[in-house]
Every structure is written in structure tokens, then in C-alpha cells.
Amino acid sequence: MLRQLRRCLFKPSTTTLLPTPTTRFLHSLSDPPHRESSSPPPPPVYLQNLLKFRRDKPAVEVERALDLCSFHLTDELVFEVLKRHRSDWRLALVFFNWACKSGLKRNGYVPSSVVCNEIVDILGKMKRFEELHQVLDEMSQREGVINESVFATLIRRYAGAHKVEEAVGMFYRRKEFGLEVDSEAFRTLLMWLCRYKHVEDAETLFHSQMSEFPPDIKSWNVILHGWCVLGNTHEAKRLWKDIVASNCKPDLFTYATFIKAMTKKGKLGTALKLFHGMWDKGCNPDVVICNCIIDALCFKKRVPEALEVFKFMRERGCEPNVATYNSLIKHMCKIRRMEKVYELVSDMESRKGNCLPNAVTYSYLLGSLKEPREVPVVLARMERNGCSMNDDIYNLVLRLYMEWDDQDGVRRTWEEMERNGWGPDRRSYTIMIHGHLENGRTKDASRYFREMVSKGMRPEPRTEKLVSSMNIQPKERT
């Protein structure tokens, strides 16, 4: 019987096997005669693994392994492989260089500006500027590869590495790459210098090049925004005066930047003066500026004035959005003006659109509740308005029930979180552990702590300290 079975298994057959849809990766330089000259591109993960297993090998050996793969190079494939090596510049560079050399031989592939931008970004991020210059020299030999996006990446990476002189020097090399040295490009240079806190250098450059690049309000705004982000209100005020004294008229962005900086530093008087001056000058504030003023007034407990601004902006045609209402509701809840809170919520519901209450609105409402029976009412209203539950809302409700020591509510919320796929997460366990310990239920706190640790969640330092004082030990993993 066994002999017959062997004969059947090893009997030559003339039956043609049907091709399977599975992608095949070829590791030979030539394909079988009945196949096409090259197989479909392998998925990026395949090339990622091929490179990963040869990370410590010389570049020549890595390229030899890549040569043995027969596939067409495309921008999409090369970009995806580079993207997977953003933190491994060496392999990214080896693959990019190989793609440049082999692409022409294989299917005439030449990397586009998108791919070149990616390798420039990788090398710049890892501060490999010597290798970056080599790539740049090769790219410059092909027309149209170095475009505005690639150049912006170059400037950004030099500024990010705090190489201010090199960034400025690279800017003046634009003509070598067929790019105009214009005001827009100069503004991009200033922006990236300011973004990486080189505001003083940016302003010095801005003033020194005024004859070559006549200043406009956008350029002034870049410098002003830089000082404001640094929190240097003294320099921001000085620059504001320079802007007002110049031939450039402040626009909405100028006002918004300066007003926000003043309110953040607690200089509400200056911010209000600017705000009212805008109306007088015919430069009507937008909703962003109004929201900033309303929030600052509420923070200073000047709620009646905030409501006046709210009323005034609507009268002048500046329509509020959900952030406007949320600022008022947040502070109204703090001072327990609940009648006004629900009046605002009803107004939001009637206006709909971008005023419809969101998860932030309902979190303020829930945080103001005093009894467990009020929770379902707010959640039902939330559901009616089409606002879905999320992990923040679930954890807030869980914390409220735990503070009220309503264990039925805690159990229902916990089960619903699990059922709807919103946790429990580390915050949920932290709430349960601290809540049970505060209520003297050490056994329950211990159970949740062990469950948390068994899931691989690391407790917060305060939780570890509290649990340690209670002598609770995590259960050993098996």
C-alpha cells in the first residue's frame, strides 16, 4: 500500500499548475522565460526587513542584496521605504543611493522631488549635514528636483540644528538651484529661525535686508509672533510700536498675536485697549480675538464684562463658535450660575452648526453636578445632540461616581466602557485605586492595582507611592 502511495505522489504529471495571486519576491537576476521581465514591487515591509537584517553590513553588501531583488522602482515604493527609516539615516541613505543608481538601469526610474525631500528631511533631522550636502550636490545636477518644498526643509533642518549662519548661507544659494531669491522665500527663512527661538537673529537679519526685501505686514508678523511665543512681552511691545510707526498697517493676525500674548501675561488692560481700538479703526476683530478677550475676562472673574463682549460681538456681526460658548460655560460653572449655563447650552443647540455642544461642553456640565441622579440627564442630552462618548467623558463620569461613592454607577460605567471599547485605561485604574483606598476598601484597590499591572500599565508615581504605603504588591506573572 505504501509503495503504491509513493508511486502516486512521485508520478510525473503534465497538469499545469494555476498561478496563485500571492506576490512572489525574486532573488535572481533573471526571470523564468514564461514570466514577465520583472515581478511586481514588493511591499515596503519586505525591503524594510531586508535592510534591517543587514544594518551592520557594509553598504556594498546591502546594495548587492538589493540588486538580487527583481522589481520596478516607483516613487511610491521608495518614499514608503524611506519613511520607515526616518530614525535610521544610514540605511535610508544606502537605499536612496542604490535607488538612484539602479533605477535608471531597471526601468528608467529617477527619484522625484518628493522622495528627495524625504531623504533631505531624514539626514537633516539626524544632523548628518555632510551626507546631506553630498545628496544635495547630486540632486542639483537634475533640473527641477530641488523645489520650494525641498528648500524649506533644508532651511528648517539647519534652523532646528541651531546653525543660523548655515541657514542664511543656504538661503542665498537659491539661485544655484534655479530658485528665485524673493520676499516669500525670505519670509520662510525668518519663520523657521523664529520657530526655533532665534528671534533676535531673525529680527537683525530682517532689518539688515530691508533694502533688498522691503518689509510688509506679513514679515513684521513673523517677528512679532516669534517674540510673543517666547513670552518676551517687552520685545513684543517694542516691535508693536515699530509696526505702528512703519508704513505697514496691522492686520487681524497682528492684533490676534499681540492680544493673545498680552492676555497670557495677565496684561488684560493693554489687551482690552487694543481690542476696543480695533473697532474704532474699522479693523473688526474676528471670533478668535473675541474668544481670547472673553476667556481672559472670565479668568479674571470679570464675567459681566465677558457677557457684554459676547453680546457686542453678535451685534457687530462677529458670530460666536463653540469655543466662545465653552469659555463662558466653563467659568459660569465655576461660580455656579447654572441657570445662565443651561441658557447658553440651549442657545448652542438652537444655533446648531459650529455652535452645537461638543464633548468639552458636556464635560463642564458633568463636572458641575452634585448628585448621581443628574448624570443620566446630561448624558441623555448629549446623546440627543449627536455627541458621542469618549474616554475622557467616561473617566470623568467614573470619577464622579467614585467621589459620590455610588458603586452601582461605578460598576455600570466600567462595564459600559469595556463594552464600547473605550478602556479602561491607566486613568480609569488610577481613579478606581485611589477612590477605593480613600473609602477604606483596600482589598478592592489591591485587586484593581494588580489587574492594572498585569495588563502592562505602569502606575503613576502618586499611585505607586500610595499603594506602597498600603503594602499592596503586584501579582507575579505566570
Automatic annotation (TrEMBL):
PANTHER family: MITOCHONDRIAL GROUP I INTRON SPLICING FACTOR CCM1, PENTACOTRIPEPTIDE-REPEAT REGION OF PRORP DOMAIN-CONTAINING PROTEIN. Gene3D superfamilies: Tetratricopeptide repeat domain. It holds the Pfam family PPR_2. Belongs to the PPR family. P subfamily. PPR repeats lie at residues 216-250, 251-285, 286-320, 321-351, 390-424, 425-459. Keywords: Repeat. This is Pentatricopeptide repeat-containing protein. Residues 457-478 are annotated as: Disordered. InterPro entries: PPR_P_subfamily, PPR_rpt, TPR-like_helical_dom_sf.
